[in-house]
UniProtKB/TrEMBL annotation:
Enzyme Commission number, as recorded: 3.4.13.22
Gene Ontology MF: a single term: D-Ala-D-Ala dipeptidase activity
Family assignment from sequence similarity: Belongs to the peptidase M15D family.
Function, in words: Catalyzes hydrolysis of the D-alanyl-D-alanine dipeptide.
BP terms from Gene Ontology: cell wall organization; proteolysis
Protein's name in the database: D-alanyl-D-alanine dipeptidase
Cofactor(s) essential for the protein: Zn(2+)
Gene expressing this chain: ddpX
Length: 184
């Protein structure tokens, strides 16, 4: 398998895996044994983004990365909304290890204002939404600039979601393929 574990120590990021908590749109943990993995190509792009953000005093808070196909089904069964969730029958970029949900923090670990929280399934979460504050718009542009310069593609409906170009060329991974399964 071509998934690499991302840790706070190895990547100088803040892990805040929301689907291991009740602080997500399902209001229940989806992962019982949270780990953060990315496909090796995506892990390389994350490293690029980290290098680009560091001189400006920014770090990344990671909300989600690889999402086992079983977790994608759990999310879809809760809220089958194709505007914000990939239909698990097609496979999500997350279930390929090819997507990451992030925000930027300052050097003290405080999140930059992005206008909405993570997983706010509303048009306010869309890139280019002019109804969020000017500061939030600037921060979203900063995040997008760093991520796209590092080689990531973005999803227009979610300011926090970035993925590999042509992510669907990669296989979907199940929880059973992980060295440390994440699901119950």
């Amino acid at each position: 398998m071509a998934l690499i574990e991302i840790t706070e120590e190895t990547h100088n990021v803040i892990l805040d895996l929301k689907y291991a908590t009740t602080d997500n749109f399902t209001n229940a943990p989806v992962y019982t044994n949270p780990h953060c993995y990315l496909h090796e190509e995506a892990e390389e792009l994350l490293r690029n983004a980290i290098v680009l953000a560091q001189p400006f005093g920014y770090r990344f808070r990671i909300f989600d990365a690889f999402r086992p196909s079983e977790a994608q089904w759990a999310l879809w069964n809760h809220t089958p909304d194709p505007e914000f969730l990939a239909d698990p029958r097609r496979g999500s970029p997350h279930s390929r290890g090819a997507a990451i949900d992030v925000t930027l923090t300052d050097e003290n670990g405080n999140d930059l204002d992005m206008g909405t929280g993570f997983d706010a399934f509303t048009p306010l979460s869309h890139h280019g939404n002019m109804e969020v504050s000017i500061e939030a718009q600037k921060n979203r542009c900063l995040l997008m600039g760093i991520m796209t310069t590092a080689g990531w593609d973005f999803f227009r409906n979610e300011w926090w979601h970035y993925q590999l170009f042509n992510a669907r060329r990669l296989p979907v991974f199940s929880d059973t393929t992980l060295p440390n399964p994440m699901m119950a």
